[in-house]
Amino acid sequence: MRNWGLFSSFFLCGTVLAAEPSQHWVQRDGFQAIAERFTTQKTGHVAFMGGSITEMNGYRPMVMDYLTKKFPQTKLQFTNAGIASTCSTTGAFRLKTDVLDQGKVDLFFLEFAVNDDQDARHTAEECVRGMEGIIRQLKTTNPDAGIVVVYFVNESMLATTQKGAVPLTILNHEKVCEHYHVSSVNVAKELAAQISAEKFSWKQYGGVHPAPAGNRLCANLVEQLLEANWKKTTVSKMPDQPLDPQSYTQGKFLDWQHINVAPGWNLAKPDWQKIPGSWRDRFKNIPLLSTTEPDKEQSVDFTGRGVGIYLLAGPDAGVLEVSIDGAAYKKFPLKHQFSKGLHYPRSIMFAENLAREKHSVKMRVVADSSKTTSATAVRIVNILINE
Question: Looking at the predicted structure, is the pLDDT value of residue 16 above 70?
Fold first, then answer.
């Protein structure tokens, strides 16, 4: 493999523009209005949402550093709304709490291509519903917000890209970007092209959670996109209709104050030291709606057209039986492929095509008989409502 001066080209003069500009980003809206707000008002809110790639010390702080240097007289508020393992579905329901409630967003970076692929294993429909839910909500709160969707990559997605095809998650996220005139950055295509040119390797990139060189590869693309578009005006308006009427465009968490905790259930911080499996610190001290008792029924009343749960599915996760408005119970296995040793954050939708009116959902946990040891736990972080 040729030595192309990787790190010297990345860090020349403290800027982060690649030596050879890439064409693997798509500009759909300009960012002139954002640059003017940053410059004249000298304040701005920049938010990042995604999974662990966003949460980690990776491309996000690199882009933050670029923006801080680009607008040195501007007081920029940065929000890190990355949560490891979460997908775009969860993102659509936690957007209000984790991003919008932190203040009006001027510039928004969004990545869920990898997690929608390997964690959630989303269908094309689910990819659209989650991503559209996030983007339409954000644009509703601030039509002038700038959005950049970033497509990271895992090995299988890279293999698909190298064959000249488009990974399912990127293909469907890009449909949403086209509909809303949102710019995007395709790290998968850039990496595939540089590997083909013998300028980079998967090992240098660093894997699913990119190494510094892999994150710099992404940050370079983001900065090239922004540099090319700070002086271009915004021309698009929000489409009147969503791509999918069932997208989570009014997704939110149900306030626990609306829950009457049933006998056999509790709303409290679990005693994690006594529960098998590891957990992540962000969930350690929050109350969860939970039970380990089979057949204990919990009712939740809500108004909306979709309902589900955001939960931690660990080694002891059972199967949830759910009835909506008195209909027959349906089974929803709670365990995830990564639940063996971890209380894994995931979202499960029970219904997405209800009439927009009042409904009642009943839940009860039953034993997961797929294992030699029965598991009967459910631990709910939030109830998901799409109004």
Answer: no
Tell me the residue type at 60.
Answer: R
Give per-residue burial for 189-218: e unless 16+ CB within 10 Å, then b. Answer: bbbbbbbeeebbeeebbeebbbebbbbbbb
Contact between 153 and 59 under an 8 Å Cβ cutoff? The reply is: no
What span, in angstroms and rounded, lies between the C-alpha atoms of 229 and 37? 15
Confidence band, pLDDT 50/70/90 cuts, at residue 237 = confident
Instruction: Assess whether pLDDT exceeds 60 at residue 6.
Output: no
**Helices (H) and strands (E) in the chain — how many of each?**
12, 16
Q: What's the pLDDT at 23?
A: 78
SS3 state of residue 261: coil
pLDDT at 373: 54
Q: Which two tokens stand for residue 210?
A: 């990119």
- Helix ranges, 32-123 (H): 32-41, 52-55, 59-70, 88-98, 113-114
Residue 214 identity = G
Residues contacting 369, CB < 8 A, separation 6+ = none
Q: Is 287 left (phi over 0), alpha (psi -120 to 50) or beta?
A: beta
Return the residue matching tokens 């801080």.
68
Between 234 and 268, the more confident residue is: 268
Q: Give every strand in the sheet of 107-111, ordered side by side.
A: 25-26, 183-186, 146-151, 107-111, 43-50, 75-82
Query: Which amino acid is residue 156, in one-letter code?
Result: S
Structure tokens at 331: 């089974």
Q: Per residue in 353-365, is it b (16+ CB within 10 Å) or e — as a string?
A: ebeeeebebbbbb
Distance CA(386)–CA(251), nearest Å, equals 4
State pLDDT tens for residues 36-91.
999 999 999 999 999 999 999 999 999 999 999 999 999 999 999 999 999 999 99
Distance in angstroms (rounded) separating the CA atoms of residues 362 and 225? 48
**The pair of three-digit structure tokens given for residue 149, joined into one six-digit string:** 């969707």
**φ, ψ for residue 159 (rounded to 5)?**
-60, -40
Map residue 268 onto helix, strand or coil: strand
